[in-house]
Design goal:
Blueprint (H helix, E strand, L loop, with lengths): L2 H33 L6 H33 L15 E4 L2 E6 L3 E5 L2 E7 L3 H6 L7 E4 L2 E8 L1
Parallel strand pairs: 2-4
Antiparallel strand pairs: 1-2, 1-6, 3-4, 5-6
Helix pairs in contact: 1-2
Length: 149
């Protein structure tokens, strides 16, 4: 399997795993809210239920954000190649290797590390549209693009 396809699949796994975690937290919060029994201290009951509802709402927001990441990833065509940095590009720099897709963090393939970043991230914006040989400053460090594919 080609490197781009492997990175693409790892980003997909990242989304799937995060989605499962968030759904689990939502289910646990809903169950806790349902099991909350009314005690003689009515305010305590209402406070507990409100806290659980806030937890549910927060995680539903996270799930919606994850849905946006999924859509961003689905727009990438792993087989596509380009000499300039576009979503789906693998960028080798003097500062590390980047996969321009979604912010999924550090991905390991064999002995190599790639950082899955969003095109909207600060370094993603610096890399966008650039080609091999381009040099820029990032976090007070000089960074040169060694290759794009």
């Amino acid at each position: 399997m080609k490197l781009k396809q492997q990175l693409y699949l790892l980003c997909g796994e990242y989304i799937t795993n995060r989605e499962a975690e968030i759904k689990k937290v939502i289910a646990e919060a809903r169950e806790a809210a349902a099991n909350e029994t009314k005690s003689s201290a009515g305010d305590k009951y209402e406070t507990g239920r409100e806290t659980m509802q806030q937890e549910i709402d927060l995680n539903i927001t996270r799930l919606n954000e994850l849905g946006k990441l999924k859509q961003t990833l689905e727009r990438i065509i792993p087989e596509q190649t380009s000499s300039s940095v576009v979503p789906g590009s693998i960028v080798r720099t003097t500062n590390g290797n980047y996969y321009i897709a979604i912010g999924a963090g550090k991905l390991k393939i064999g002995d190599n590390t790639y950082y899955a970043i969003s095109a909207e991230s600060p370094i993603g914006e610096k890399l966008a549209g650039q080609k091999a040989g381009y040099t820029f400053e990032f976090n007070n460090r000089k960074v040169t693009i060694d290759g794009v594919n």
